[in-house]
């Protein structure tokens, strides 16, 4: 582990619960960024050692900026970028050069700054309908599961990504799984689509919950006080108050869940009162 990351881990509040995952609560964004880069680098190293590749699914939004330290020393030199295969847990159905594109965000903020193999970057087909884009993306993933670039779940034949990185909106959405939306009930498809996203743009594709919950590792990265209520509802024992909060439905069956929280985002957690 990088020395700075060791220091930060020692200072952060780390809590664990068997269902709701490990919570890494950081005093500052800078500390969170360092810990996140170190976590991703370590999973990459382990996965490359075990399987020869690292299949990682990204999200859009604030996440990419928070991954920025991967483009800096020591990670830009120590990570085995040639072994990375990149996917998106969700994507907006817009052109790849559109400001709303999650691919463009990742390309500008990360992929263009490190030596990723261009053919390992699996973005969506942006020239077809949302439904077709979801079908095409699932087909691509099926091919790569067949050749074991992406591992397979022993439980349900779903793809088992080495790491799925998620952000979370103030409404508790993750990827493009929004509260009370029918896509939450999609159990047959790996990738599905929506044309009525409550957050613009309306047309999106998204991994389904079975795929997210089949991953070896899932990290949810959340910053900002505006998301503190959703963090509380997603993690704490709130009874049946919010059965449809997508972030609460992220429960990897066999994999490991880690929440990366900056202090303001964690302020409404029940445990926050004990961590002062
Ligand atoms: O629309 C989206 O929003 C979520 C959350 O974004 P954030 O900026 O609040 O972190 C993001 O994770 C998702 O990929 C994106 O399509």
Give a structural overview.
This is Probable 6-phosphogluconolactonase. It holds the Pfam family Glucosamine_iso. InterPro entries: 6-phosphogluconolactonase_DevB, 6PGL, Glc/Gal-6P_isomerase, NagB/RpiA_transferase-like. Its EC number is 3.1.1.31. Residues 29-259 form the Glucosamine/galactosamine-6-phosphate isomerase domain. With 276 residues, this protein is an alpha/beta fold. It is built from 8 helices and 12 strands. A 7-stranded mixed sheet has the order 1-2-12-11-8-3-4. Strands 5-10-9 form a 3-stranded antiparallel sheet. Helix 1 (3-11) packs across helix 2. The longest helix is centred in the first third of the chain and has 23 residues, at 29-51. The ligand O=C1O[C@H](COP(=O)(O)O)[C@@H](O)[C@H](O)[C@H]1O binds next to loops.
